[in-house]
Amino acid sequence: MNSSLSAENRRKNILSAVLAVICVIYVLPVVAVVINSFKLNTYVKTNTFDLPRGEMWAGFSNFIKGMTFGNYPFMKSVLYSVVITIISTALILLFTSMAAWYIARVDSKICRAVYYLCVFSMVVPFQMVMFTLSKTADKLRLNTPWTIPIVYLGFGAGLAIFMFVGFVKSIPLEIEEAAQIDGCGPLRTYFSVVFPMLRPTMISVGILEIMWVWNDYLLPVLVLDINEYRTLPIHIQYLKGSYGTVDLGATMALILLSIIPVIIFYLSCQKYIIKGVAAGAVKG
Amino acid sequence: MSEVSLKHIKKIYPYTEPKKKGEAARPTNLKITDEGVVAVEDFNLDIADREFVVLVGPSGCGKSTTLRMVAGLEEISGGELYIDGRLVNDVAPKDRDIAMVFQSYALYPHMTVRENMAFPLKLKKVDQATINAKVNEAAEILGITEYLERKPKNLSGGQRQRVAIGRAIVREPKVLLMDEPLSNLDAKLRNQMRAEIIKLRQRINTTFIYVTHDQTEAMTLGDRIVIMKDGVVQQIGTPQEVFDHPANLFVSGFIGVPQMNYFNARLVKKGEGSYEVELDGKTVSVSPDKQARLAANGVESQDITLGVRPEHVALFGEESGMFHGTVEVSEMMGSSVHLHLSSLGQNVIVIVQTMDLQGQHKEGFKIGQEVAYTFGGNVIHMFSKEDERNLELPR
Question: For chain B, how many structural domains are there in total?
């Protein structure tokens, strides 16, 4: 009995140690970004994992350099990133939740086909469609920050619909029937009754989509006219000099700046992610 | 005025083949026609203004489907539905002036009790002062005033059901539909809520249609009961009528707890208008009124299923007319004892009032004890072996 208990403890300790090492490995790149953003450029390569002390300390000069580098205003790229992220996420949340509600509630072959198409789209790699997409986007004038959210809506629909359908199925149909009897039409039922109940899933889908759109590099670089419109990840990439020289300190500083909003958003909404992901898993 | 009239109402669902090859079709007692599975067949009922009608029957009998057709949540496959003389077959639920209470309460979880109750009025664009007055009044009737600012998740099952009823009555609907509203409550709360529904009914002027599978609820609440089986109405009548004169074997077994006792017997026509029943070599005389009804229906001698309710079986009588059995189970219920006897090759249930225990039974009953019982000719029910209908009732 005792020996089995101690064996169990030993197993747990080993597991804890292994997981701790994995955690460190995961966090290391983030830590490296943070410490190197305060380091002079020359020390980034040579003393990558040292703390920025003494002569290595650059203060906020990397941040200032990063934000004022080149002839493209930093705040403009921040604005484009914000606009694209907010519009894309809003479109995804609104349209996919409505579509998911319909798919979950109407049992027809077309609905099932649309659902499987959406789920299937999650496993198609972006690289497979990117060239045809960029041409199509150009033709359809989806190559501006105001219209690129439509492309994001298409790519984000798969995961969002998958998550929303799972949650909608866990909502008792009687609630919607009660709304119908109380005097709601379909739109009113959706906005007054279904939409508020979807909140936990909305938040988790929202966070996932915001992180994806905010950090996305490939889609905007392919679709947008990058001389005119640069999002943050594209702007950071332009810190690279013309002969391959890179100001790593400034790059790290901008990366740190760009991830701060997402981290704050994620931490403040973390509890809803778990709720949203677990929703519908068990009958409540 | 809010009369409801259902004329030849029919509900047919498309028949779905088993999904996998070789898989057996889902077992169903419902009739399957070329059109599909008949969930409700030729339902006819006229409900008077302010009447309380209860649809009762076992699971899958079509009672909820019928109610949902009245609500407008299910399409009507055939027949006509009138509310207040207006044909409403194709009218949307919101335009039927009905309200519905669901088994699962169906409250809006993101709204407070007050918002839940005010919601239908808000949709009707009633002014805020009237909404407040009506919500407060309904809350007072239902005793939920103190919970008005709470969310449904912070209420008990009974309180939630009151809110659901409150949301339904604030609208002052023409017809109030209730779909097994007490099924999710525990036994004690169910009894309490049942009494409250009876009180509520006296306070509000509306027509009730209530669905339940619980015959006690049906008997205690309904002005009239509609008993259904496999989508077909078996009998419509007052609680006393269906208890005293069940239309067929199914109704006799469904209404009344414990279930009616059945015996294989023979009805003998002795002469014009004169009948007696032979059971286990003994003769049970049939009361004159029953004989008259049998004669009016032109019933001839035949093998029958004889039904006797457990509460109508007596342990005392003339020895020549007594049947004998052995006690297998004795259930002490407080005011009465339910005896399960093995007699005439079957299980016979007898209810004995404890106050009536006397003589040799004064000390109660022991397992294996021999007991003699009898029943009068005025409490027997005679069912045809052929089609299970009550021979006393006209065809």
Answer: 3
Q: What is the ipTM of this complex?
A: 0.85
Full residue range of the structural domain in which residue B299 is found: 258-307+377-395
Numbers of helices and strands, H then E, in chain B: 9, 20
Residue by residue, DSSP assigns B45-72 as: EEE-TT-EEEEE-STTSSHHHHHHHHHT
Q: How many Å lie between the alpha carbon of A124 and the closest alpha carbon of chain B?
A: 29
Say if the Cβ atoms of B73 and A188 lie within 8 Å.
no
B52: which strand partners?
A: B208
Backbone torsion region of residue B262, taken as left when φ is above 0, otherwise alpha when ψ lies between -120 and 50, otherwise beta? beta
Q: What is the pTM of this model?
A: 0.83
List of chain A residues whose C-beta atoms are within 8 Å of the C-beta of residue B119: 179, 182, 192
Domain CATH for B268: 2.40.50.100
Model confidence band, residue A65 (pLDDT cutoffs 50, 70, 90): confident
Longest dimension (CA), chain A: 73
Amino acid at B158: G
Q: Do B73 and A183 touch (CB under 8 A)?
A: no
Q: Report chain B residues whose CB lies below 8 A from the CB of A183.
A: 94, 120, 123-124
H helices, E strands: number in chain A: 14, 0
Chain A residue with minimal CA distance to B107? A175
- Residue B292 and residue B337 in one domain: no
Same domain, B213 and B357: no
Assign A280 a pLDDT band (cuts: 50, 70, 90): very low
B-facing residues of A in 246-275 (CB < 8 A) are none
* CATH level 3 topology of A73-238: MetI-like fold (1.10.3720)
- Do strands B52-56 and B86-87 pair parallel, antiparallel, or not at all (unpaired)? unpaired
Nearest to A172 among B72, B106, B123 (CB): B106
Question: What are the structural domain ranges in chain A?
Answer: 73-238
